[in-house]
Input
Amino acid sequence: MCWDDSDRVRAAAEAENFTVADLTRADWSEIALLVTSPGIPHLYPQPHPVIARALAEGVPVDNDIGLFFRSFATPDWDDFDRMPKVVAVTGSNGKSTTSALIHHVLEQAERPAVLAGNIGRGILDIESAEDGGVVVLELSSYQTELARALTPDIAVFTNLSPDHLDRHGGIGGYFAAKRRLFSEGGPDRAIIGVDETEGLFLAGQLGEGARDDRVIWVSSGQKLAGPGWNVFARKGFLSEWRKGRQVASMDLRKIRGLPGSHNHQNACAAYAACRTLGLSPRVIETAFHNFAGLPHRSQVIAEANGVLYVNDSKATNVDAAAMALAAFPNIRWICGGLAKDGGLERLGEGLSNVRKAYVIGREAEAFARHLTGVSASVCTTMERAVAEAVNDAEQGEVVLLAPAAASFDQYDNFEIRGADFVARVQAVLGQSQA
Output
């Protein structure tokens, strides 16, 4: 029995021979479990009516991630030489790149691996586990908050910045949703970004002391000198330390698919996960160098007349945009959209790299007023913003889309926004070179 608020989706389900019924009017004595999409609110700002009914009837509520963890292990595993592993990655920013990077390294090392969850394949569409296989999951706070089972072998926390606050009832609820991945499942290894207070708190809660190497501390920008297992990046160099001694290092500066300190943090987290899975530093470094990056995440889309064009449409919040701004000098910055709570003050030092901002979105004028100390052009549309930025850009500069806002005022999602940016850039460059 299933239900969707959309007439179109219900019709599609019926065409696939599913039984469609209005669950607000169903006989709940015959329902054992309600499985909901992660996007459906179950607590804040208020539960969806169907979920409210399930809660009132005492019917358990779960999502696809919970079903996966409850069903992944099978009796076939008794015949495997190497047990399959699940690596789960969460955090505010960088989780997609971190997950994809782990998966990429595993594939380069010829380890059977699948990428799923919020990226790659749907979690219930993947095949059964194979001998020595690794499932890499990207998990959002929406997914970790509700799943009734969370049992990864390795869990990664990249960072935390304010996001989805209405859905989680504030920053405390948002952090609590992320924390469930570690507190509910008890992973064998936890890889924790400690550049924010929440990460430090989580690392402290999970470890039995500074020497407990079941918790791997990760940082970008600070040296971690503790006696445990640490992976950090400073001035473009990644270092791995164990028991107070450096055991490996690599130069991240020339890895084009991982530009900027935020991607160096992603590299540290992915490196730590791959080391936990038994891969050598040399194998990991070789794979890093041929990682192309992900679409819409610090994606270099063109270079013409000495100007670099970068699509970071996934920078949907202020902290992600600040990281992108810090990654490049001399920026022609395309920004704006549906602003999130918290304002733009956290853009910080990255604004010093901005030559000019080109603001898009229905509320472009209001957005531009909050960009203190930055010359801004109210463009409203992507077409106009790209045209002005390309016209103004000089050799050695970067035209960067890093909106610091959601896309929903003009686009269905950040992918469509990024694709529009790419298309506009290609069109303008094509005209200029014709």
The chain has a mean pLDDT of 94. The chain has three domains: 7-62, 69-289, 299-433. The radius of gyration is 23 Å.
